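Supplementary Note 2. Why include the ligand at all?

Several targets in our set were suspected to adopt different conformations when bound, so apo predictions alone were not considered sufficient. For every target with a known small-molecule partner we therefore ran a joint prediction. The input for flavin-adenine dinucleotide is given below.
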Amino acid sequence: MYDCLIVGGGFAGLQAAIQLGRYRYSVLVVDKGYGRSTLCGSYRNIIGWPQGVSGQELRRLGRMQAESYGVHFRQDEVVAAARHEEGFELALRSSGGSLRGRTLLIATGISDRYPSLPGLEDKLGYSVFVCPDCDGYETVGKRTAVLGSGVPGARMALTLRHWCDDLVYINHERHAVGSDELERLHREGIDYIEMEIVQILEGTDQGPNKEEKGAPQGDEERPAPAPFGGVLLKDGRRIQADRGFIAFGGNEVHSEWARKLGIERMENRHIVTDPRTKMTHVPGVWAAGDIGVHAEQSVIAMGEGAQAAIWMHKELSKQSR
Ligand SMILES: Cc1cc2nc3c(=O)[nH]c(=O)nc-3n(C[C@H](O)[C@H](O)[C@H](O)COP(=O)(O)OP(=O)(O)OC[C@H]3O[C@@H](n4cnc5c(N)ncnc54)[C@H](O)[C@@H]3O)c2cc1C
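The joint prediction is reproduced in token form.
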């Protein structure tokens, strides 16, 4: 029986693990091995990493740090969770076994929906982005193509207008865009194309949008992918661009496995927590990171992981008194 079970070893789970390890609890992190933080090639808005750092490198460092405090890790998928008399029990997919803990942190994040187009995924975080608050800055002075679907794509293009004045929105799935959005796109000078994308093109504009160029820190050995150069459309048109943003909507929220615990979820399946403690409505269960409501940024995930850990400690201390 562990003091703390953490499901999800991304930024929220790792930061919580470090904090809980330093309280000297027995902690186990169960993680599938990939998530938003393994996809992003370069985070450039995190304090201390002016040239950017890849998610994989940050996770490697975070895991090493957590392990130095005795935190255990297991690669597996949690498929279900239930209460038992002393805490919680998790069912695992590959081993078929189960794990028990006195407290539980849900840090399983979300997955972005995007089409499987060769050359798209490896550019994520380098020259193709998903989060305007994180990477809108990277579009300053660059021709930028929003690759998306319906209203989410239109809204992304309008949001990016804050940084970028050379934008095209390609509505790949041709889902309807309302007349209000179309009118706003037109008014903001954003080109609009309804056409399927068949290929991602490679370009030449490699560097991040700042003076320091080069590989993300700690990743000097890993070759950067060829930069985004635009797209080839089904009707044969080539749309040139230096930056891409994806916005297809319908992202997957990884909270289904925890549903039976009785946690409260929004309609979009994000988990509701107390803003002060990050505890869910079920005593003994916390949630942190992208799985929560509107917190889809790396440093916010880390902050929430630490916040949840502090309150898990308060609860565990109460129990042992
Ligand atoms: C392409 C891209 C670029 C981004 N760029 C930036 C940026 O520049 N700046 C920024 O601040 N943020 C950025 N973000 C957002 C940032 O990556 C996320 O906010 C952050 O990763 C959230 O951390 P998390 O721990 O909540 O989730 P994740 O990092 O997604 O980790 C969740 C983990 O849970 C695991 N998991 C899920 N379900 C299960 C299960 N049932 N059992 C076991 N394990 C499970 C997954 O395998 C995953 O490892 C970007 C995201 C993407 C996709």
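Residues 298-320 form the longest helix (23 residues). The two ends are 19 Å apart (CA to CA). Comparable summaries for the other entries are listed in the accompanying table.
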